[in-house]
Specification:
The chain is built from eleven helices and nine strands. The chain is of the alpha/beta class. It has two domains: 227 residues, Spore Coat Polysaccharide Biosynthesis Protein SpsA, Chain A; 79 residues, no CATH class. Helix 7 runs parallel beside helix 9 and helix 10 packs antiparallel against helix 11.
Amino acid sequence: MDITVVIPTYNGAQRISGVLERLIKQQVPANLQWEVVVVNNNSNDALGKVVQRWQQAWPKTIPLRYVLEPKQGLAFARQCGVEQAAGELVGFLDDDNLPAVNWVAAACQFAQGQPCIGAFGSQVVGQFETPPTPELQPILFYLAINQRGDSPLKYSPAEKGVPPGAGLVVRRQAWLNHVPKSLLLVGRVNQSMLSGEDAEALLHLHRAGWEIWYNPAMKIDHCIPSDRLQWSYLRRNLHGIGLSRYYLRMLALKHTWQRPIMTLLYGMSDSIKLLRHLLKHKGQVSTEGLANCEWMLLLGTLFSPLYLLYVWLKKPRIAVR
């Protein structure tokens, strides 16, 4: 099996058909072997029945499997998908991701002859239910939109970050060898907006020596509903991103001895950024708008060491590789 497409979903009965409709129309070479695995992440809607109807009409040459992961959290669902996969490559699609008809073929083609690449991300374009206002443009990329030009790009995590999990493709064996089964960041669960599970997994791969790339030939439309453009959602989203930053920054460092020094330097830098933002926008940081969202991001970033310490203490068995 060349590639397994894994679709983790929570209560995605109304969204999953859009993804499967795009996948059933994939244009792939005749000799390419692939499959689809839908991972039900403890849903309580009619997801199982919807997938069952698709299985009845699905081509017999392309397996469409349905599995359950009862542990809530996107990290658990993706780990389940990797373990269930039969492909050498594993491609992740969220239930609101609509891949182009050549997405599967483009993923396999990019991996050929590139044994050093352990993971690569897609070009992700926002498909908005309601057009975003110009004021939102500086923070739209926080909604897992990933457009870095039309040429392949090698990521340097310490400088350019890593690609989002939407449209990510990984080498299955590299993931199984180097990504812990239980990550510290498990994804947004219940009311928690703490994110970063995608980046945590990729940083483990990078620390093990695998390269991470951007492949613009793999194109995805990311369906973004109107409620995700509300200031209330964006504020909570950016605050959660900020709270995860310290842990991800430490993972991105090459040597563990750098951590105490960089903790101090990051703390000083984040404090200065927060003060500058406060002086620049004055009273506007407490009202809805871009300044308030950026304030929540900076505030979460500054306090992320303490918050991540709290999270880590709740999970004493988690070890950073």
